[in-house]
Design brief:
Length: 117
């Protein structure tokens, strides 16, 4: 059975992402321990992971929350830390400009320090 070009491209990308898991899995364990120690509920920790995206911002926000920082401080810190993603995304525009808007949104969502490097 012959694979379509898009499916082949997807599988090639998925295989390329496997080495990233070497760093992601230990970081997830560290973040999980930080969440547990900060006193966040499961729902709050899921929100932090979904909304903050960047691991550095997640860890900083969880630690600030655990230390009793205000929501303004936690939010401002996460925004400042994540500003680098706007630069990453802007630099990818020439590569992605021919893609549909949903594809570009998904690509922007998937940008990380590891995948960008």
């Amino acid at each position: 059975m012959k694979m379509s070009g898009k499916k082949r491209e997807f599988l090639r990308g998925a295989r390329s992402g496997v080495p990233l898991m070497i760093g992601v899995i230990p970081f997830g364990l560290v973040l999980g321990l930080a969440v547990r120690d900060s006193g966040l509920t499961t729902v709050q920790s899921l929100f932090f992971s979904t909304a903050l995206l960047g691991g550095t911002a997640q860890l900083a926000a969880v630690q600030l929350y655990g230390a009793g920082a205000s929501a303004v401080v936690v939010t401002a810190t996460a925004i400042i830390i994540n500003l680098r993603y706007s630069m990453y995304s802007l630099s990818l525009y020439p590569i992605l400009k021919e893609r549909s808007f949903p594809e570009r949104l998904f690509a922007a969502y998937c940008v990380s320090d590891q995948s960008y490097a």
